[in-house]
Amino acid sequence: MAKVYDVAKKFLFQLEPESAHALAEQALKVLGWCPWLTRPYKHPALENDILGMRMPNPICLAAGFDKDATMLAGLNQLGFGGVEVGTATPKPQYGNPKPRLFRFLQEESLQNAMGFNNRGIAPLVHRLERVRPLNCLVGVNVGKNKNTTQEKALEDYQKGLQMSLGVGDYYVFNLSSPNTPNLRDLQNNAFVGELFDMARALTHKPLFLKVAPDLPSDALLKVCASALDYGAHGIIATNTTTDYTLLPGAKSFGGISGRALQTKSREVFKHIAQAFFGKAILVSAGGIDSAQEAYARIKMGAHFVQILTGFIYQGPLICRQINQDIVKLLQRDALDSIRDAVGIG
């Protein structure tokens, strides 16, 4: 499959990025219908139990790739430990004007200004209700509609959570996308407290806050602390960055992901882990594209990690390769299980 993707990539990367994504969606649907085409890699050393959820391995797909839960069966066959669908909003929305997704091939990075384009939470829930049993966990990433005022934002998050409570293993509140006007302003102690106070009154399922890498460190730690004080089970760090100095030729809008974000995301996660490891479930995302990077984040305190841009650049076998290499790293370090590696650094 790796050689097939090398050939396909040359063709796909000649297309406009969203057109390439649409073709990838169709290919993953076919894979979901034909599970005998590939088998997920499994190893007992990779398994973990997190907040009562059985995770087959620590490599998960971040929100933003399967926004409408149309590719889950195929992604499950690629062996992800979890797939986070969304970001979904209460009402469907087109997102920002095109072009809004840009490749930076040399840096293996992306810049996106998508703007929560999705078909709405109701169709997503309907698809999840019909999907066959999966090996991977399913996270639901919830956002607010662009035209919803800041004063009504809590209502959007409440509606998205209420409508999807029966279909997700865990839930993530996205306040950190740079592509919805003023969304990041909601990353404040008061709103985050209200948000998780509301959510914990509705469910006992695991709840996460996804944060941006661009807040000052003190403010970021206070927001995370507020989320945890009001009932969040964990923190996902980080979303894309608006630090355009990291990427030569970057646009002046949207968020950067991929290898250009790797160092910054790792440093932000390090600060969060130093403050909250042992007090919360921590998830690292941003520039993870190898077993070495994933394992480093796990040793820093990540209970699992999320990838997305690396998946696009390296192809469908990236999850298998990372997991196989992590098993070797565990053996090198004389560790019996990924559980033993979490926070060891």
Structural description of this entry:
By secondary structure, the chain is an alpha/beta fold. Helices cover 39% and strands 17% of the residues. It has helices at 2-12, 17-33, 72-77, 121-130, 153-164, 189-202, 217-229, 262-276, 291-300, 309-314, 318-332, 338-341; strands spanning 48-50, 53-55, 59-61, 82-88, 101-104, 109-112, 137-142, 170-174, 207-211, 234-237, 255-258, 281-285, 304-307. The strands form three sheets. Strands 3-4-7-8-9-10-12-13 form an eight-stranded parallel β-barrel, surrounded by six helices. Strands 5-6-11 form a three-stranded antiparallel β-sheet. The protein has a two-stranded antiparallel ribbon with strand order 1-2. α5 runs parallel beside α6 (189-202) and α6 runs parallel beside α7 (217-229). It is globular, with a radius of gyration of 19 Å. The two termini are 35 Å apart.
